[in-house]
Amino acid sequence: MIGVLLVNLGTPDSPDPSAVRRYLREFLSDPRVMDIGPVARWLLVNLVILPTRPRTSAAAYQKIWTERGSPLLAHTRDLADAVAAALGERFAVRVAMRYGRPSIETALDELGGADRIVVLPLFPQYSSASTGSALERVMRLAATRDVIPALRVIGSFHEDPGTLDAFAAVGRPVIAETRPDHVLFSFHGLPERQVLRSDGTGRTCLRTDACCDGYGAENRRCYRASCFETARQVARRLDLAAGAFSVSFQSRLGRTRWIEPHTDVVVRDLARTGVRRLVVFSPSFVADCVETLEELGIRARDDFARLGGAELRLVPSLNATPGWVEAVARMVRDAAGS
Q: 170, 149, 148, 167: which is closest to 159 by C-alpha?
């Protein structure tokens, strides 16, 4: 039997402030996420963020919570079921969340009889705070087993043709219906210091405004560059002209410098400059979640309308769409060698 571990970021158990506080404490205590010294991290998380942030975040979760609970968890489970059906009986597919439940430890326990395990962190563009953290946790837990399982890892997959085709497939009908003046690709942001550390040469990353205009050996380890490349590849599949789309970064936290341009600023600027119909992709997320449904689908839409925009349409995430299921199943087969 071949195990398959689909790892997503995580979600609170409920949209109540107490559950959100537990989730945020685990998430923000990860040194790959809050990459400062342990004492400073503890003080910042427990004395600055947790006294106020859980109530605000809980209000956002309450707006998007469904009868099935967390959209992120529901969509990831749907994906796992569909991938399991596509792969067949030789494969056992499990969902795990880096933070919250179901945990990576529980999923590894359930895959204890597997000959080997394919690990797929569900983050198309690699960053230390997402893919890196998930893989570190899997490897640490696997190493505690008496029989350490053979692991096959799928890292970044932002260049995978099936994944890019799947993003284009979910966006094509939205673009055809909306006929937008502009298309915005909004990716999750990162602190600049984390991006700079990923630059293998130290010569290119964030040195100029055009540092991500191309993609090759010098910047292929850079998260920001891989986001721009994802946008270009999806735009090419949709026949979008160079000036018809742009890239931005969302979900920044705190006062440190985060990579730019910022999505909330870009959305307001587009409205002010006369863009009436805006379509927004979120290609760093493969399942709809609070960052897509609430941050983009509600807050960004309201900002756009308040400043004169007529319509902001959010492209649904990949969720468990057929093209994405097929892409995941193929990547897993390739990694498993079967």
A: 167
Tens place of pLDDT for every residue, the chain, 338 residues? 999 999 999 999 999 999 999 999 999 999 999 999 999 999 999 999 999 999 999 999 999 999 999 999 999 999 999 999 999 999 999 999 999 999 999 999 999 889 899 999 999 999 999 999 999 999 999 999 988 989 999 999 999 999 999 999 999 999 999 999 999 999 999 999 998 887 655 556 776 777 888 888 778 889 999 999 999 999 999 999 989 999 999 998 878 899 999 999 999 999 999 999 999 999 999 999 999 999 999 999 999 999 999 999 999 999 999 999 999 999 999 999 86
Phi, psi at residue 133, to the nearest 5°? -65, -45
Does one domain contain both 183 and 300?
A: yes
Rounded-to-integer distance, Cα 194 and Cα 309, Å: 34
DSSP annotation of 294:
I
d(CA 297, CA 286): 15
Residues 182 and 217 in one domain: yes
Residue that has been written with the tokens 């809050």 in this structure:
34
Looking at the fold, whether 290 and 167 belong to one and the same domain comes out as yes
Residues 6+ apart with CB under 8 A from 330: 162
Separation in Å, CA 126 to CA 98, 131, 143, 159, 252: 15, 6, 23, 11, 17
Q: What range does the domain containing 129 cover?
A: 2-157+321-336
Count of beta carbons in the 10 Å neighbourhood of residue 241: 7
Q: What is the CA 69 to chain-centroid distance, rounded?
A: 19
The residue among 124, 151, 114, 157 whose CA lies nearest residue 136 is 151
Considering the domain architecture, whether residues 178 and 75 belong to the same structural domain is answered as no
Prediction pTM value: 0.95
> Is residue 238 within 8 Å of residue 315, measured between CB atoms?
no
Provide the 3-class DSSP secondary structure of residue 314: strand
Question: Which parts of the chain are beta strand (E)?
Answer: 2-11, 91-100, 116-121, 150-153, 182-188, 245-250, 277-281, 311-314
Per DSSP, the three-state class of 255 is coil
